[in-house]
Amino acid sequence: MQNLHAAYVQELYGSEGELKSFALTYPDSFNFGYDVVDRIAETDPEREALIWLNPEGEEHRFTFAEMKKWSDKTANYLASLGIEKGDNVIVILRRHYQFWFVATALHKLGAVLVPATFMLKEHDLEYRINACSAKAIIVTTCGDIADVTDAVAPKCSSLELKILVNGGGGGLAVGSDTPDADQSHLSGADGLCSLAAERDGWHDFNTGMRAASESFERIDTNVHDPFLMYFSSGTTGNPKMVLHDGAYALAHIVTAKHWHRVVSDGGAHLTVADSGWGKFVWGKLYGQWLMEACVLAYDFDRFNAADWLSIIARYKVTTLCVPPTMYRFFVAEGIEKYDLSSLTHATTAGEALSPDLFESWKAATGLKLYEGFGQTETTLSIYTPIDVTPKPGSMGKPSPALTIDLHDEDGRPCNRGQTGEIVVDVRSGKPEGIMTCYYRNEEKTAEAIRDGFYHTGDLAWVDEDGYFWYVGRNDDLIKSSGYRIGPFEVESVLSEHPAVFECAVTGVPDDLRGFAVKATIVLSPDYKVSDELTRELQTWVKKETAPYKYPRIIDYVDALPKTVNGKIRRAVIRQQDMA
Prior knowledge:
The chain is α/β, with parallel strands linked by helices. It contains 17 helices and 29 strands. The longest helix is centred in the first third of the chain and has 17 residues, at 64-80.
C-alpha cells in the first residue's frame, strides 16, 4: 500500500535532497476519521495504530481495524446521547487510550474536540465550559475532575451531558464486547476514582460504548468546518480559545514526516504529552497516523527517567520527542545502562537546548537532537530538517509549508542578527495549520492576523546561515535600562555552565532599571549554593553574551514549576515574585 500521506501532499526536493516546497491537496470532504483511520483500516486492517501501557504493567494494542471499530461504536454512543455536528465537547482523559476513540468519533460526527488538562480547578473549568458553550464534557474517573465538574455544572447553562470514562486500563477487553473481570481497576489510580454508576447525572462511557453498534455511516462534513479547539493561556487575562478547521490535521504531515521522521513499518513513535495540551496531537495522533505509523502511549502519573528509558528499550521505540529537561534526566540516569539501539531519530522543543546536553546525548546514542518550534495556533513552523546540521539552541529553519519572516515593531522586515517578531505570511490565504480564529474574540483575532500576516508574539533573530534563534515571548520580554532581553537566550547561556542543571529567567520590578533580570536555578548535584558560585554564574553570562543581560538576582530552588509535559512555567515564578 502506498503511504496515505502521498494522497494529500506534494513535495519538491532540491538536487541535494533538501525539501524545497510543500503543498497540501485534499477534497473539501476530507475528514481525518474517515479518510485516514477508516481508510487504513480498510486497506491494511492489521497495521498497528496504538500501543498503550501504564505503570501498573497493563498493555493494550490496537490495530487500525480495531481503532475504526471502537471509534465507530463511540460515535454511535455519543450520537445516541444527542451529540451532533457543530457541538463543542470538552474532553479530559489524560493519556487514556479512550481519548483516541473519542477524538476520532467526534471528528466523524463533525463535533468539535475541545481537549483540556485534568489539573483544572473550579474557576478554570467553569470559565472553559461557559466560554465555548460546551454541550458535553467527557472526563476520566481518575483524580478529582469529575468532582470539579459537578461543582460547576449548575453554573453552566449550556452543559447538557456529563460522561464518565473508567480511565485507561480495565475498561475494555480488546477484541471483545465483554467487560474485563476487574472493572474497578483504573490506570494511574490515585484513590479518588469512582464509577459513573455511583454518581448522579453521569453517563457511563465504557458500558454505553461497548453496547453501541459497530456500524456507523459517514456523516457529511467539510474540511473547513470547526474541528479542534484549545484554550491557550497568556500572561494576562482569561485563556483564548484557539479554533482550527479539519485541515489542521493534514498540516501535521510536516511534523511527523520531516521533523519526527516517524517509521511507518516496524517502529513506534513516543512523545510525552497529556491529551489536554496541543503537543499531544502533534506527536500522538494526526501526523503519525497520516504516515501510517504506530504511536506508543505511556499513561504515567509522575515522570521517572528509568521507567522511560526502560520503555524505549523494551518496545524498540524508533523515534522520540521530549523536552530538553527530560533528556537531561535521561543523561543523569545513565543512558549507557539501557539498549536504545532501536532509536533512529530524536527531537526536542519547548525550552533551551544547551550544547553540552546535545553532545552528551549524541555521545551516548549516536543521535543528534533536532529542535522545532510551533504554537497552539499553528502546527510545526520552524524546525531542523534531517538534511540540515543542527545548531544546539537554534529552532532551525522555516517549514517549507509556510512563508515566515521577522518583523520589527513597525512591521518592517528585520536584518540578519536583528531581533523581531516571527510572522507567517497569509496574504495569499491562510495556510493549513494556522488557526481559523480566536473563537468568539474578534478583537484578539484582529490583533493576531493583520496586514496580511499572522503575528506569533514570539521573538527571534536569524543568523547568517538562515537559522532562527528564539529570544522569548513579547510578554516574556524583560525591558531593563532600555534594553530588550529575551529570557530564552540568557537561559541558554546559563545552561552551558556545569553547575546549572536547569533554570528559568524572568524579570522582577526594579526602581532603577524598570525590571531586573532574575535567574531561578536548580543546581547540578555536585554544586552547593554560595556567594562565590553566584558571582561565578553572573560573570559567566557577562562573558558569554552581552553583559547587560546578566542576572542581577539569582534564586536557587530544588525544582522549577512545570506543566505536566515538563515545560517550565515562567508565569508562576513571576506571580510568586510579585507576591
